[in-house]
Please model this.
Amino acid sequence: MRIGIIAVLCAGVLLVGCVSVQTADTAAPAQGYRTEVAIAPAEEPHQYVVEFKISRVSEKGPVILSMPKLKVKAGEEGTVKVGDSGDNESIYCTAIVTENPGTIEAATRVIVKSQGRETSNTAHTITLKK
Model:
């Protein structure tokens, strides 16, 4: 799995992103999932918008599966499920943003299920200075 962190200061607002690539199996290393997470302050104090981008990666290139957004209050967990009504083809995205003295910490998790099996499970933790 490869992980990269991206931070951009834009008009006084800090946007943070984290990218990871997880291959489905070692026999086909060019196939797997790519998860991207971006976090930005929301319009209300102590609220954050967490944007996820989940893609399936293959030799033909990436295909975006879902781009859900969550608005979370600091200290509270937010979760969104995208997929069928059962648990066969689903994407679960979870985020918790914690405000500490001098820092903000964001912990996210993305789980992809295909044919009822967990095929990808990635977690990102980012700590920022205020």
